[in-house]
Amino acid sequence: MDMETLIISGIILAFLFNFLTGMNDAANSIATVVATSALPPRRAILLAALANFAGPFLFSTAVAGTFATGIVRGENLTLPLFMAGLTAAVSLVLIATLTGFPISSSNALSGGLIGAAIAEGGAAALLLPDSQLLVRCAAITLVGSICGGTTGAILSRSTRLPLALGIASGSLFGLSLSITSAMVLGILHISGILAILLFIFIAPTIGFAFAFLFDVLISHLFRRSRIKTRRRVFQPLHLLAAAIQGAGHGAHDGQHAMGIIVGLLLASGSLESFSVPTWVLVASAIAMGTGTCFGGWRVIERLARKITQIRPYQGFSAAASGGVLLSAMTMMGIPVSSTHVISGTIVGVGVTRGREAVQWSSVRSILAAWLITIPASLALSWSLAGVFHLLAG
Questions:
Q1: DSSP letters of 121-188?
Q2: Torsions phi, psi of 234, nearest 5?
Q3: What is the pTM assigned to this prediction?
């Protein structure tokens, strides 16, 4: 297979990946809208598709840069590497969509690139963080965990939660908040593989906390209002928040194809430095929006119906929290999982009504899918790398 054919095949595969991401992640944009019946499902899908299409034009392309040049060393970037990683990611997202699991397409693609890079040049082919960054990160994590665990232990006594649960959840919230705050303040500069791994845990935790606190605030402010009043106030706000969330999702996940295509062009010598051509930006947005129109209904059903019952003001809380977080992460260039963020916000608003309001069996099955995504994608791409090297001659 000549180089030109390999590049064209890679570009087509990248757009297919964005299309499948739109299908699987349609639930991220409209799960709360479907759950609260703020819009009929078909109209909700159309809203998500338009927002996902618009998103890539509203934010920077920093996330695309992470996938193109932030995971694998420049001298190890090859066409077979990108093809193997992309094929593995496409396979996993397709399987997850057909079976109804909200998989992280970001993690699938990251695992695919990591596995192919290891097959090509070992661990030395990866852009790993230096020891000083790891020490600073560990120190901030430790302080955050201790403070959060102590706070959780104190709160567990007043809320009658089990002490172990209070300490564990407090520690997780503490370390998530400390790492995120350090990055926002410029104390930590985390990117690439370290950011991807950390935010597997941080993204849903921060999403949970934001949505939980926002829900509690709204519940307090409107505690004496009627149900009809709440619906009249929050239904239009919910739709606006869902549109913002969809734009944040489109901006973030729409950059997957952009990063891979730019990487292909860099590896082939067609580009000398990182930049996203206009045609790549437009085509990636179209692929994402079109895929959303064919939304994976099994995934939507799982997030909208099988985690918790969502009321109108809670749908607004979850969508607004998710939209803000996704937009912030996109501007910072951190490839977080939109699925992790949105799932965390849905659980967060559900828990405000008590632990029994959440179907934890569904949450556990989703968590299991998250944890195996990177290892599965890594293993698959590692096994495919040799095949694509043979095809490339």
A1: H-GGGB-PPPHHHHHHHHHHHHHHHHHHHHHHHHHHHHHT--HHHHHHHHHHHHHHHHHHHHHHTTS-
A2: -95, -15
A3: 0.85
